[in-house]
Amino acid sequence: MNRNWKEYQKEIADDRYYYARSCIRQNFFPGSEKAFLDIMRNDLGRDCFDDPLHTSCTGIGYHADIVPLDTIMAVVARQFALMGEAGYENFISSCITSFGIYTEILATWEEFPETEERARENLYKATGRTLVKPKNLSHTSDVVFHHREAIAARARHRLVNVLTGEPLRVVEHIGCHYAKIFPKSGVGGSEFPYVLAGMIESWGGECVDYPERRHCCGFGFRNYLVQANRGYSVANTQKKMESMAPYKPDFIVANCPGCAMFLDKWQYTIAEMEGTTYGENGHGIPVLTYEEMAGLVLGYDPWALGMQMHQVDVEPLLDKMGIEYDPAAKYLGMNGKYIGQPASAIVNCGSQDTIYNIKQ
Amino acid sequence: MARRVIIVGGGVAGIQTALTLSQRGIPTLLLERESELGGKLTGWHKLFPSFTPAHEVLDELRQRLNGSGVEVRTQCEVCHVERSGVTLASGERLAADAVVVTTGFTLFDARVKEEYGYGIYDNVYTTADIERMLNEGRVAMRDGSAPRRIAFLHCVGSRDEKVCQHHCSKVCCITGVKQAMELKEMFPEADVFNFYMDIRMFGPGYEEMYRDAQQRLNIHFVRGRISEASPTLDGRVQIKAEDTLTGRPLKMSVDMLILIIGMRSNASNAVFAADAGLQCQPSGFLAPRDLFLHNTESNVGGIFYAGAVTAPKNIGESLSEAVVAADRVTEYLKRA
């Protein structure tokens, strides 16, 4: 789908990563970050340092006007200082919001050196640490993209419908803060990002280009954070879903914590509000993170990847890919402990007793 | 006064300069990079505002050139320009007493504006494509069918900071109106839209043409820029824009999206400037000595300009400027 992405190649480090986690992903898709570390360390033999000392980047507070610029610069400076102290130069961020923040602040420091000096001074006064700027800054989806052929070489499943032999049709959704702020910081730029498309192509799938491909998922920070605005957030997701549905995608993959969550959970909301679902046979369309997609390709157990945490059930997709799974183990957590089960929902064609049509 | 003048660029400005110098008995060598003379005019169909076929103008210029005594060399790319002559890509050095640079402009590459999908989506075209299709006698969608809804987008690669093209390309507005009228007359049932930020009708007859397009042909003009183009399931193009007069966003699907591409300066301008000490404008176009009394002279004695090498111009302006440039060359040679 992307014929221009080669103009936006970015440098992505090959090894020795300092890993900065996402605040919200650990709650919504807790298996994804673990899968990333497992893939990097165990499958690809890369050094990935998961530092317990690092904190939130405070990006959500920044975008909600709660955290001032100088404060977030000091926090970011501390993250970079920790990377330097640990002996790493390649900073990778699990979160798109954080990636946007790190990119924006490095660009600000470049453009306005006095702000870097101020951040350096604030950091030293507050923590006694010294700012070390990363040699390479990448999002973790960049890193998976960088290693996509190595993953393809180890693939146990491909993004192919095992019943028909046809490539799976995949909607790739890129978080706004990945490349819309600084197009050259993302693989493929902002109009035709290649970071997820490259993985999909390498692993046998086919990207779906649809009219609202570039549209925001609807998270938009204040759209969701301010309760009164949440209808607007849902409306944006609805716009995307209605636009992509005629193309009959097999699943959606996103590289942003907010996008993966909202495209998944708002499908539940829309189904409950209007009785509308967008996938096959009355189901919703499964929404994956790119680590989950990589994990499935590499043969990881879907429940070990945390895919039972999704609002839209992923079993139809697993069946298409020919992945074996134990339905009874879906809601068993660590050591076989039952973690609870969500109530049935229209989006999964569950119990019909809540179905109603508000238009009638 | 048999001194040789070299003219670099065989478009309309170059041809007219050569003709005028030749009429004054000055030996002239006209160099053209392509295999035929005519420059961009060779790709145009009809000229605004009179809808004069472009070939009529070009044929007459070529006819005048035959037997004029002007020496013409095509497929000659000039790499270096100096006041004493030029050097060709082949390495051949040609001496002259004066040089006139008439290399014109480069069409903006619409692929740079990725959001419009040129080169990616099937039914996104440029105004240059439409001129070619009109010349071929067949305007159609990629699948061969007739368009029922057509959108033109003005200022693609003009007045756009994001692509470092701050200048107005001047002739695009009227080109958009002209092509909209041509397509509306070709497809009377089609809805034709022009998305613009300003309509700049600077020439004689242009405003009347703009009015005619609206009143007689019912072509719609929407003040607002298109933000993005996307494909639809049936191979059409969905566009999003804001109608800034009503203050409302709009979204529509069109059969053809036509990007009205602007004029950008040639990459060779910077090379010529570095070689000969010429001055460039911030837009990259070569800077004349001044904009009033010496607008065909460079800041270096013996090097002159005509046509769109100094700024976007229409055909008539380029032809007039060529005559003025020839005058200035004649005066210069008399003094030298």
Describe what is shown at a glance.
The complex is a heterodimer of chains A (360) and B (336). With 360 residues, chain A is of the alpha/beta class.
Alpha-carbon Rg of chain A, integer: 20 Å
What is the CATH top level name of the largest domain in chain A?
Alpha Beta
* Strand portion of chain B: 25-35%
How many E-type strands of chain A?
8
Largest interface: A-B, 13 and 11 residues
Note the total helix count of chain B. 7
Which descriptor suits the 3D outline of chain B?
elongated
CATH architecture of the largest domain in chain B: 3-Layer(bba) Sandwich
- Strand percentage of chain A lies at 5-15%
SSE sequence of chain B, one letter per element: EHEEEHEEEEEEEHEHEHEEEEEEHEH
Biggest β-sheet strands, sense, barrel of chain A: 4 strands, parallel
Helix content of chain B: 25-40%
Strand order of the largest sheet of chain A: 2-1-3-4
Task: Describe the protein.
Chain A is 41% helix and 8% strand. Chain A has 360 residues and is an alpha/beta fold. Chain A folds into two domains: 12-140, Up-down Bundle (Glutathione S-transferase Yfyf (Class Pi), Chain A, domain 2); 149-348, 3-Layer(aba) Sandwich (Rossmann fold). Chain A has a four-stranded parallel β-sheet, sandwiched between helices. In chain A, strands 6-5-7-8 form a four-stranded parallel β-sheet, sandwiched between helices. In chain A, helix 7 packs parallel to helix 10 (195-202). Chain B is an alpha/beta fold. Helices cover 26% and strands 25% of the residues of chain B. Chain B has helices at residues 12-23, 54-65, 127-136, 172-186, 206-215, 268-276, 315-335; strands spanning 5-8, 28-31, 46-47, 52-53, 71-73, 78-82, 85-88, 93-95, 98-101, 106-107, 124-126, 149-156, 191-196, 220-223, 226-231, 237-243, 248-254, 256-261, 263-264, 303-305. The longest helix of chain B is centred in the last third of the chain and has 21 residues, at 315-335.
